[in-house]
Specification:
The complex is a heterodimer of chains A (about 375) and B (about 375). Chain A is mainly alpha-helical. In chain A, a hairpin with a 3-residue loop joins strand 2 and strand 3 (about 195-205). The mean pLDDT of chain A is about 90. In chain A, the strands form two sheets. In chain A, strands 1-4 form a two-stranded antiparallel ribbon. In chain A, about 70% of the residues lie in helices and about 5% in strands. Chain A has 13 helices and four strands. Chain B has about 375 residues and is α/β, with parallel strands linked by helices. Chain B has two domains: about 30-135 and about 260-290, Rossmann fold (3-Layer(aba) Sandwich); about 140-255 and about 300-355, Rossmann fold (3-Layer(aba) Sandwich), CATH 3.40.50. Classes of the chains: A mainly alpha (about 375), B alpha/beta (about 375).
């Protein structure tokens, strides 16, 4: 049996050494796998890690890809910090996008960009409402929020599917499941750069991330609310003695994280898709869970984690395009990377203890 | 003297070879760069695999004259936009985007790269540099209807549809027309799987059909699950997109095979000859390819597991469709509520096919939504 025992003191050096070691191990195994499969290993690693930074518009693609991950990840951070396990951000993302889409499509002629404020707020409400279901069940009836939030993801997926095939289907779409295009006022534009024009898909939605990260940092580190969340997460008993209401914290973090996932959904659809379709999220809500943990439940960390994950995803596509490496292989490499990064993170906090097996097979 | 001759000779050889080199390089040029975007990994059956086979035909036909880049597993959304743009940036001259959901991303990128040609598969929006391609899948389904009508003993046909969109509905109706031509008593029941690919759901739908008495199954979904269930339970059915007899050697009657190769080759040849275009006008109709049995874009696999007389009837239907003697949707057409769609002597045109939201006689129930 292997058990993990918390270390009494976390070594300062290891905070830096652990991630470096993780990367070294990842690269070593990556080299091994790529060589055995007959791909040039150096070139592959270049494609995965470096090529996404090789052109300025590729860098902007990383930001676009990381944007929803960072927004959702920041919300999830609040949950995970207070030991509330919201696994359903994917569903909250969809419901945010859907509710905002409903509002957007109800005003087909609106042009002013102030309308975006309304859709963003609607998206927040949509996501928060979807998170409210596990929140209320958890606080009133003590129902496990992991199961409820996760299962609601599938409900949300089927719901948006139904909506774009039925009530919101564009009559001009030849029966294909697509809504009408959003009105101008509900679209988030790409950012024009003087002299260069557009950089890939880089859009104004990225400003929300720029705003969100410092706000989240201040909230977590400098406010009473953030303090409560920290205490509840690290010492629930202490939080109880201090008179912090566990239920109200649980409710708050779930609503906030659901709302943020909803906003991410609105930004993604308004900036990159421009209409509702059966699939609006591509696992962002689930990937963001990894992002939150990879970022060590800290806003700045989440910013970097989001960028790392986005980089590797884009690099995998580049490797496929230029070298013909199938996605399954680069997916394997992604898995190795995450495995070592999270292992490094865990081992720096915990010791491994080998204990004797207590029970042997008996007949 | 000999030396002089040698010198002249070598000079001439040199001259010829230089000339040859110049000519050949001028004509061969650099290889045409071709990009493909796939929805999934190709695997060994179904929609994307059929595209992969088409791509292999391109490789075989052009050899070193093309350089192909493929990106698989691209979700239908912002990722598609990025991948297609990246392919365009890398200098691909023609890019095939092989799923319906790439429609808006393809159009978006095409606007930014007016010199790159785009071929979007199964969309309906075109532009100056975006053409569309599709296969008349429904023609194969007519033959399926003929075979089903002759093979069924219970007169119950189970049909698994992906989504109630025009393309699937016209397939069901074509099947019904084939069925009616040989067997007036049989009828079709449809189960909507609400997915293009989900072996579990497809298998469940097949089980339900068989439990309700169907002995012939047809599908407009992508996995071999239906045929595998049929094989196990003693029913029979038809393969989709690629030949699936390997999955169900006793149950597959035949498969309608999507053959994208000729279309790809034609389009790449057009590009190399400088004749690729989508015509004028708001709809760019000349840029639309909708080929079927006649143009070999739809191919019927070997007729198997059926008596010779059924195979012969199937062959007759196939020949009839190829030489134009059979027009599947010619009047009188009556829908399954008794309403006349089109009188005798007339036939539905392509536009009317894409507007189908009703079942013809021989299909049970009504179109959802």
């Amino acid at each position: 049996m292997i058990t993990f025992v918390p270390r009494e003191k976390i070594s300062k050096n290891w905070i830096f050494i652990a991630p470096i070691l993780s990367i070294v191990f990842t690269i070593f195994f990556g080299l091994l796998i790529f060589t055995f499969l007959g791909y040039n290993p150096i070139e592959t690693l270049y494609q995965i890690f470096v090529s996404p930074f090789s052109r300025i518009d590729r860098i902007s693609d990383i930001l676009v890809k990381a944007c929803p991950l960072i927004i959702i990840g920041t919300g999830l951070m609040l949950c995970f910090k207070s030991n509330v396990w919201n696994i359903g951000a994917e569903g909250q993302f969809i419901m945010g996008a859907l509710l905002a889409g409903f509002i957007a499509l109800s005003f087909p002629n609106i042009e002013t960009k102030f309308f975006l404020l309304i859709t963003l707020i609607t998206g927040f409400i949509g996501g928060a409402l979807w998170a409210f279901i596990p929140a209320i069940l958890k606080t009133k009836l003590n129902v496990n929020e992991i199961l409820v939030s996760l299962m609601l993801v599938y409900v949300a997926m089927l719901f948006i599917d139904f909506i774009v095939r039925g009530p919101l289907r564009d009559p001009m779409s030849f029966g294909f499941p697509l809504s009408k295009p959003y009105p101008e006022g509900a679209l988030i534009n790409k950012i024009p750069f003087p002299g260069i024009g557009f950089l890939g898909q880089l859009h104004y939605g990225i400003l929300f991330v720029v705003l969100l990260i410092p706000v989240a940092w201040i909230f977590v580190n400098k406010t009473l609310g953030g303090f409560k969340i920290n205490v509840l997460g690290s010492a629930p008993q202490a939080a109880k003695f201090a008179g912090f209401s566990q239920n109200s914290i649980t409710l708050t973090v779930l609503l906030l994280s659901g709302g943020l996932a909803g906003v991410a959904g609105v930004i993604e659809v308004s900036a990159n898709i421009g209409q509702l379709q059966p699939e609006v999220s591509f696992g962002y809500g689930f990937t963001a869970i990894i992002v939150a943990f990879l970022g060590r439940l800290n806003p700045l960390g989440i910013l970097f984690a989001g960028i790392i994950i986005a980089t590797v995803k884009l690099g995998a596509d580049n490797a496929q395009m230029t070298m013909g490496i199938p996605k399954v292989v680069t997916g394997l490499f992604e898995g190795i990377l995450l495995f070592f990064l999270l292992t490094g993170e865990t081992l720096q906090k915990y010791k491994i203890k080998w204990s004797e097996r207590k029970y042997k097979w008996k007949l | 003297m000999i030396k002089f001759c040698m010198r002249i000779f070598s000079l001439i050889t040199l001259g010829i070879s230089v000339l040859f080199f110049i000519i050949s390089s001028a004509f061969a040029g650099s290889p045409t760069k071709v990009g493909f975007v796939y929805l999934t990994t190709p695997g060994d059956h179904g929609w994307t695999y059929a595209h992969e086979l088409g791509k292999q035909m391109v490789e075989k036909r052009f050899g070193k004259d093309v350089k192909i880049s493929v990106v698989e597993n691209v979700p239908e959304g912002p990722d598609a936009t990025r991948v297609i743009r990246e392919l365009a940036k890398q200098g691909n001259e023609i890019i095939f985007t092989t799923s319906f959901g790439y429609m808006e991303p393809t159009l978006k990128v095409a606007k930014e790269f007016p010199n790159v040609k785009f071929e979007h598969i199964t969309g309906y929006k075109r532009s100056k540099n975006v053409a569309t391609g599709n296969i008349r899948f429904y023609e194969g389904r007519y033959i399926q209807g003929v075979v089903a009508g002759l093979m069924t003993k219970t007169n119950k046909i189970g049909y698994i549809g992906a989504y109630p969109i025009a393309e699937v509905i016209m397939g069901i109706n074509a099947f019904a027309q084939g069925l009616k031509s040989v067997n007036k008593d049989a009828s079709i029941s449809v189960i909507w799987a609400n997915t293009w690919y989900d072996p579990v759901k497809e298998a469940d739908a097949a089980k339900v059909h068989i439990a309700e008495g169907a002995d012939i199954l047809a599908q407009h979904t992508d996995s071999p699950a239906m045929l595998q269930i049929a094989e196990k339970k003693g029913a029979m059915g038809f393969g989709q997109s690629t030949d699936m007899s390997a999955f169900a050697p006793k149950a597959q009657l035949f498969a309608s095979i999507n053959n994208w190769g000729p279309y790809y080759i034609k389009k790449i040849e057009d590009l190399r000859n400088g004749t690729w275009n989508t015509g004028d006008g708001p709809n760019h109709w000349p840029g639309n390819v909708w080929g079927g049995l006649k143009s070999d874009m739809l191919v019927i696999s070997k007729f198997q597991n059926m008596p010779a007389n059924v195979a012969q009837k199937a062959q007759e239907a196939l020949d009839g469709l190829k030489n134009g003697k059979i027009n599947i949707f010619s009047g009188p057409l009556i829908d399954n509520t008794g309403k006349e769609i089109i009188p005798a002597g007339k036939a539905l045109d392509d536009g009317a096919l894409w507007g189908m939201n009703y079942y013809l006689q021989g299909v049970n129930g009504k179109v959802p939504g």
